[in-house]
Structures are given as structure tokens and as C-alpha cells.
Amino acid sequence: MSNHDDFPTEPPTRDLVVATEESNNLVTRGLEAIKNRAIQPPSLAIDGDSARLLQDARNAYQQGDYETQQRLLLTLAGRGFAEAQVDLGFMYELGREGVTEDNAETVKWYRAAARDRGVTQYDAEAIKWYHEVAEQGGLVRNVSEAVKWYRKAADQGNAEGQVNLGLLYHKGVGVPKDNAEAVKWCRKAAEQGNARGQYWLGFIYFFGWYDDIERNMTQEQEDYAEAVKWYRKAADQGYSIAQLCLGLSITSGIWARIRVQEDYAEAIKWYSLSAEQGEPKAHYQLGLLYEEGKGVQKDCVRAYMWFLLSEKSLFAESAEKVSAQAKLDDIKEYISQEQIAEAQRLAQEWKERHAS
Amino acid sequence: MLPEEKELLRLEAEQAELEEQVTSAELALETTKTETSQFQHRYYLVVGRLYAQLDELDAQIAKARMEKSPDDIALKANAQTAKQKAEKSAEEAGLIKTQPKPPPIIAPELKQAYRQAVKLMHPDLAITQDERHRRTELMALVNLAYERGDQKAIEKLIQEFGEDPEAIVGEDIASRIVKTIRRIAQLHRRLGELQQQIEAQKKTEIFQLRQTIENAEATGDDPLGNLTQKLMQGISERKIELRKKRQQ
Fold first, then answer.
1. What is the Cα–Cα distance from B89 to B99, expressed in whole angstroms?
2. Which of B132, B133, B209 sits opposite A31 (nearest CB)?
3. Which of A154, B68, B71, B215 is deepest in the core (most CB within 10 A)?
4. B129 in contact with A at a CB cutoff of 8 Å?
């Protein structure tokens, strides 16, 4: 057993040869091979069967048949099919249990919204809204399962899986909050050319370090430059939120802080591209620029039109919605009834053009 | 009741509580060791053997290359290194054959018997040095039996141990208090030691490998199978290369 003052002589005890330094060679090699995930199932090529089943799972999801969706995804994800792993992770992240006839519609709506608008989950009001709806729908989220499946996909190099995993690290949901880890995963996706990964990498550089005061003080400029760089890459690929954010980085004075000439025409360009894709916050920003005549000829009718469009589609509790309403009231004070009617007509036309 | 009697009761309760903890910790340590040893066996039989084969082929390829250009010092050094590596791997992979095969699973009855044995004959319950020695030797036998999954052997040891020779002596309260305090101190020390040993076990590479693999297996992955396939693929590639080298 052990040495003790009273019992200086101890008979030797026998230990299993579990691990000695010298005998570890082959163990180390195996451990490294498996830990580095250099070892993947030999064939990851998606056979026709898997691809068809994934489509079946997605159809089941569209039809609200979450049981079937889950069953199929579990099978496919178990086969190491990365896309199915991401879908499965997403299913767990959003919540999967308690879907009944009563709440099926709510749940469907929530999930569709979450998928479509997933990129804006960072808006405090959006998060709140999602949670409320999910709760009403009686959904139980299982984030640690989500982490598990995202990680599997991410380790296979699947960009969507990498971004989703990175975001959970950024939010500290299901894993300890760790921005360095978040940056690592989003960067992997971004470097593969994944627009969503580029956007989120930019986002984390832009806002991500705000809780790290030391970093904020010393690295602010570099972080902003990095953020703008990745926003631009995603924006160039037509990613609407990134276009909005790139515009914001100009009009909020970030370019000036990283010693890049502020260019409102550039901001108008990116806001317009984003607005064309129906991003209500870009509508609001365009309203501001038209109202003030920055980067564009001052035009109160256009401004009114953009505020009108944004006011209709922004989240009820968002700050922009409140100020869009205030702006509408302001502008009403100094433009004519005809101009208001004109703006309303333009807004209507815009909507019809973008209805499809 | 006398105050001494009260104190003795309190101390005996404390001792009983500690005995329970020490027993559980002994069991946990032995179980970890045994399970890791089972895993190690499985690992070496499958993966270790393949690594050794792979290294042997590498050594032969290096040798064939060297023989093609006998004047090249770099190739000579390569062949030498590859040979040493192959020898080392072969030796390591061969070691497992010399060890007894651990039981496939640890039955709950086996754990129960082990618990019973520890409670009865734990060396830290001994007061005299002779008794401590006797118990230490017995415990080593119990541990060995447990690692082999030999429940019968443990039961036999329990029978042979018989009555606790220190327990039968009628004593006054004061000396019982002294002995209990001493046992408590010994148990405390052992508990700390066990916790350290369990931690040390968990830090070993083989344990980490086992954990990594078992976690993955729980989620439906088969990293060991994948590794095996990869190694077998490497082996056939090398065999082809070697054949080419020899034909050239």
C-alpha cells in the first residue's frame, strides 16, 4: 500500500501494467490519430441512397412530420453524413419535443422563421421572440446534442457545421463561452469561402470581444479591420446581412477609426444591395441617408418610402422600428399630402416588385 | 452513557463512514485499472499488431531503397531508423501476449465480493504491524483476483481471513478510542492516496485513448474500426510498393 512512519517495511503490491512511459509508443500514435480526427470513415462519398433519404428528411420537416425527420436524420448522421449531422444539430438546437396537433402550426412557423432569419438571432429582440414562440410551442431544446452533431460535421470539414459550432461557442450555449474557439471554427468555414462563416467571423471581430476589456483597448483597430475584411468577402458573395453590416461599418464611423476614407456612396451601394434582398434594417438605414442627403441627393419622399417599408417589417420591439415610426411622424410635418401619397405608392410598387 | 462512550460511538461512526468511502475508492481504482487493461488488450491485439506490421513493412521498404543505392548515406540512416522503429513496435505489440487476458466484463457480483473483501481485510484497519502486513498481502491477492475476474478466489480469501483477530480482544473504552482514532487517520491517508492514484490513472494515455474511443462509440462512431481500416489500407499500399521496389 504506502509508506507510513509506523510501518516502514511494506510488502510490495502488484500493479497492473496499465501504462508505463516506454510502452506508450503505439498508444500515443493511436491517440493522436484519433484525436486529430485524421481518421475518418474511409468513404464519405454520399451514395444515392443517403442523398435521397436526406431529401426525404427535409420533406418530412416541411410537412411538419418531425418524427420521421428525426428518425431519418439519426440514421444518416450515424453513417457520418455531414449534412445530415448539421440538420440534426439544428433540430436539437431549435427544440424537437412536444410537437402536438395544437402547436404544430406555431412550431412550423417558428422553425421556418428560425431557419430563414437565423442570421439575425443575435438581435436581442429576435432571440426573445424565438424563445417565446418556442416556449408557446412547448419545444424542448437539447443544445448539448446539437453541439455533439455540429462538432462531428465540423470535424469532417463541413462549413455549416463549423459555423454553427462556432456560434454556440460565441454564445456560450451548450459549451462554455469561448470567443477564441468561436473564431477558430468560423474562420475554418470562412476560409473555405462559406459566406455565412465569413459574415459571422466578421461579426465576432466586430462585436465579439466587447466583454474582453483588455483586448478592446489594445486590438480594437485590428479587430475592426478584420471585421470589415470578412464582411466584405461575404457581401461580395451577395450575403444580405453582411452587406448591411458593411454599410453600417461605414456610416457608424468604423472606417474612419481604422483610417479608411468614409464613403457614403459606398454605404448607399451596400445598403441598396441588402435592401433589394428585403433586409428591413437596410431599408431603415437608406431612409436615414436619404433624409440627411448623405451619399445621395436629399429626398424626403424616398426617405419616407424606406422608413415606411422598414417600419412594416421590423420586429415589433426593435429600436429601429420605434425610431422609424418617429421618423415617419417627423417627416409628415414638413412634406405635403401629395408627397406622402407618392411615397406610399413607391413603397407599394417596391413591395409588389419584391413579392415573388 | 459516559462521555467517553459517546465519543467512542461518534468515532466509530466516523470510521464506518470512512471505511465505506475507502472501499468505494478501492473498487473504483481497481475497476478503472481492470477496464483499462481490458481495453489495452483489445487495442494491442487489433491496432497495435497492425502498427507493428506497418512499421515492419516500412523498414523493409527502406532497406530495399538502401540496397538500390548503397552509397547513399541518408538512405542508410533511414533504413537504420526504420529498422529500430519496427523492432520497438514489434516488441511493444508482442508484450500483450505475455499478459493474462482480462475478464470480458466485470459482473456486479464480482464487485460485491470485492467490496466485502475490502471491508473485511483492508490494511488500514489494522492496528499492529504484523496484522497490517498480513492484510496487505491478502489485499494484493484480492486485487489480483478482481483483475482476473476470479470471484471464487475472492470468496475463498474471505473465508480464509476468518474473524478479525484484532476485534475479538475485550478492551476498555480508552484503548478502543485510541485505536479508532488511529484507524481513522490511516483511512484518511489511504483515501487521499486512492484519489491521487485514480487521478493518475485518468492521466495516462491509454486511459485517454479508451475514453475518447468509448465516447465516440457511444454516439455510434467506430474510431477503432476506422483506424484499423486505415492501417490495413496503409499496409496493402506498402506491400505493393515493396513488391515494385523488389522488381525494379
1. 17
2. B209
3. A154
4. yes
User: In sequence order, what DSSP letters do the residues of B149-160 get, joined into one string?
Assistant: T-HHHHHHHHHH
**A7 pairs with which residues across the strands?**
A4
Return d(Cα A310, Cα A287) in angstroms, integer: 9
Contacts of A21 in chain B (CB under 8 A): none
Please name the residue of chain A whose CA is at the shortest distance from the CA of residue B206: A27
Residue A159 confidence (pLDDT): 92
d(CA A206, CA A230): 10
Q: What are the CA-CA distances from residue A84 to residues A75, A115, B24 (Å)?
A: 9, 15, 43
If residue A308 lies in a helix (H) or strand (E), which one and from where to where?
helix A300-313
> Quick one: cell of A35?
484525436
What percentage of chain B reaches a pLDDT higher than 90? 2
- Of all residues in chain A, the one with the smallest CA distance to B43 is A27
Query: Which chain A residues are within 8 Å of B222, Cβ to Cβ?
Result: 41
Distance in angstroms (rounded) separating the CA atoms of residues B189 and B187: 5
Sort out which chain B residues have CB atoms less than 8 A from A30's CB and list them.
Answer: 43, 47, 51, 209, 227
What are A70-89's pLDDT values in tens digits? Answer: 888 888 888 788 888 988 88
pLDDT confidence band for A267 (50 / 70 / 90): very high
Helix, strand, coil distribution of chain A in percent, nearest 5: 70, 0, 30
Cβ-Cβ contacts under 8 Å, B34 against chain A: 16
Which residues of chain B lie closer than 8 angstroms to A31, CB-CB? 205, 208-209, 212
Q: What is the pLDDT of residues B184-235, one digit of tens each?
A: 888 888 888 899 989 998 888 889 888 888 888 877 778 888 888 888 888 8
Can you name the residues that pair with A4 across neighbouring β-strands?
A7
Predicted local distance difference test score (pLDDT) of residue A348: 93
In angstroms, the Cα distances linking A184 to A11, A166, B125 are: 53, 7, 54
Q: Check CB contact of A30 with chain B, cutoff 8 Å.
A: yes
d(CA B207, CA A90): 32
Query: Hey, are the CB atoms on A30 and B226 less than 8 Å from each other?
Result: no
Size of interface A-B (CB pairs under 8 A): 107
- Residue A304 CA to residue A179 CA, distance in Å, equals 40
**CB-CB under 8 Å, B190 with A28:** no
Q: Is the pLDDT of residue A23 over 60?
A: no
Q: What does the pLDDT look like over A165-175, one tens digit per residue?
A: 998 888 787 88
pLDDT confidence of residue A34: 76
Cross-chain residue pair A1–B123, CB shorter than 8 Å: yes
Query: What pTM, to 2 d.p., does this model score?
Result: 0.51
* pLDDT band per the 50, 70, 90 thresholds, residue A107: low
**Residue numbers in B near A40 (CB within 8 A):** 226
CB contact A41 to B (< 8 Å):
yes
Looking at chain B, which residue has its C-alpha nearest residue A80? B221
Task: Supply the ipTM of this predicted assembly.
Answer: 0.73
Separation between Cα atoms, residue A345 and residue A308, nearest integer Å: 11
Decide if B185 touches A, using CB distance below 8 A: no
Q: Grid coordinates standing for A227?
A: 471585421
Cell of A168: 454556440
